[in-house]
Structure formats: structure tokens, C-alpha cells
Design a protein that fits this description.
This protein is mainly α. The chain has helices spanning 2-13, 17-36, 40-52, 54-67, 84-97, 126-144, 160-171, 190-193, 196-202, 207-219, 237-245; strands at residues 107-112, 118-123. It is globular.
Length: 249
């Protein structure tokens, strides 16, 4: 066993991570441009390429087992971390089943809110998180091409500071006259109540990815709202929320 695990760890550590990121980025850039140009067919085939790309699969596994904050959080299967051999096994699993993924159930952790209520954090297994991360690689560039330029939440390379800057520019004394106002909306139970049909209708993806995302949504349903919700704790959830809320402004 010792020799095998050494071999696995050497194989994992010797991966050219920088080159893999460049490979993935190249595919993602082509996808972004295809969607901008309105070429849906090309976009879908590039998304399939990303799902099958070994670079993307390795990076997804690395993201959820090494880099993410919740990397030690176990899912319903009780696995809280993967050793090098298990990571390579997961790579084979993603390689074979990325386009027909079966999502396991979710582990629910109640978290107390300030107002005395609790919200359920729903944690997928590590394998499911890796698959969701892979899907995110394939979905994000396509949707980034369509998202509103003033949307700042849960987007790569954007954050609260960008939103602050935007606000400041529009609210300062010499812009927009005196009719300025700030409207604050809070979407009640946002992650619990997002409509599955809205997400599915707006998703830019080939059928095989849509089917996987649909299963992923159904794995986290709240018995009260079977047609709604996306798991808080899923890797792809914030992106799906943005897909459903795009255009709300």
C-alpha cells in the first residue's frame, strides 16, 4: 500500500497545474466568445469539451479537495478528505461519468440565524462537489457573456468593492441630479425558493449537463417546495442563483 500511495502522491504533485489552468482558460475563452457571437451550437460543443477535459477535471478535484475552505466538510457518505489515490480514482470516475452524473443525497446541517430561525446548509459529497465544480467551469463563461455589467454578486473577479465604487459614482453630488435613490431588496429564502424551471429554461448548456444539473437540484429539494431551491453549500449554487436572477434589475 505504501508504494502505491507514494506513487499516487508523486503523480498528483507532479501535475503541471499552471499549464492545466491555461488549457482550461483557453477553452473557457473560446466558449465566452462563442456565446457573445450567438453561436449556440459551438458553445454547447465547447461545454462538452470542458466536461471531458482532463485539465478541467483535475482542477475541479484540486479545488474541492485542497483549495476550498470547506474541503474537510464531509457529505452524506462521511468522507471528509481524499488521499492522493482516492483523488485519482475520482478523476477516473469524472472521466467516465461527467456527462451522466448521478448525484448523491445531501447532508443537512442546521445553522442558527440572527433572527432566531435556522437555515439548513446542505452539503454534497466530495465527489458531487468536484462534479459541480467541473460544471461550473463549463457554465460560467457562457453566462458571464450574458450577465448584466452591473451585477456584482458571486461573480469571478468581482466583489463588494466594485459595487461600492458603482454606488459612489452614481450617488456623488455632481451626478444624476437630486433624484437619486437607493432601493434595497431582500429576496426571502432566496436559495430555498429559486424556481427550478427558471434555471433550466435559462441555462446555456447541452442536454447532458442540464440533466445533471436537474438531478443536482432535485437532490437538495425542500419537501415544502419540491419544484424550488438550490442547495446552500453546493459549488454551483451561486452561479445558478445568478442565472435565475439575471435581469432582475
Amino acid at each position: 500500500m505504501g508504494r502505491h500511495s507514494n506513487k499516487a502522491s508523486d503523480l498528483w504533485k507532479s501535475q503541471p497545474w499552471k499549464k492545466l489552468r491555461q488549457n482550461l482558460f483557453r477553452l473557457q475563452r473560446r466558449l465566452y466568445k462563442a456565446v457573445q457571437a450567438g453561436d449556440q451550437r459551438k458553445a454547447r460543443s465547447l461545454q462538452k469539451l470542458i466536461m471531458k477535459s482532463r485539465s478541467a477535471q483535475l482542477l475541479a478535484i484540486r479545488q474541492v479537495t485542497q483549495l476550498n475552505q470547506g474541503k474537510k466538510t464531509p457529505g452524506i457518505d462521511g468522507k471528509s478528505s481524499l488521499n492522493y489515490r482516492q483523488r485519482l480514482n475520482l478523476l477516473e470516475l469524472l472521466n467516465q461519468h461527467a456527462t451522466d452524473w448521478k448525484h448523491a443525497g445531501l447532508r443537512e446541517i442546521p445553522i442558527a440565524k440572527k433572527n432566531g430561525k435556522t437555515r439548513l446548509l446542505k452539503i454534497p459529497t466530495i465527489a458531487d462537489r468536484a462534479w459541480q465544480c467541473l460544471v461550473k467551469f463549463a457554465l460560467e463563461p457562457a453566462h458571464e457573456a450574458e450577465f448584466h455589467p452591473c451585477s456584482y454578486g458571486f461573480r469571478t473577479g468581482r466583489g463588494a468593492h466594485d459595487a461600492q465604487k458603482h454606488m459612489q459614482n452614481h450617488l456623488k453630488s455632481n451626478s444624476n441630479g437630486i433624484t437619486k435613490r437607493v432601493i434595497e431588496l431582500d429576496i426571502k429564502k432566496c436559495f430555498d425558493r429559486i424556481s427550478h424551471s427558471t434555471i433550466m429554461a435559462n441555462l446555456i448548456a447541452p442536454k447532458c449537463i442540464k440533466q445533471g444539473v436537474f438531478r443536482c437540484l432535485k437532490a437538495g429539494v425542500n419537501p415544502e417546495f419540491p419544484e424550488q431551491g438550490t442547495p446552500q453549500g453546493g459549488v454551483v449554487s451561486p452561479l445558478l442563483a445568478n442565472v435565475a436572477l439575471n435581469g432582475i434589475e
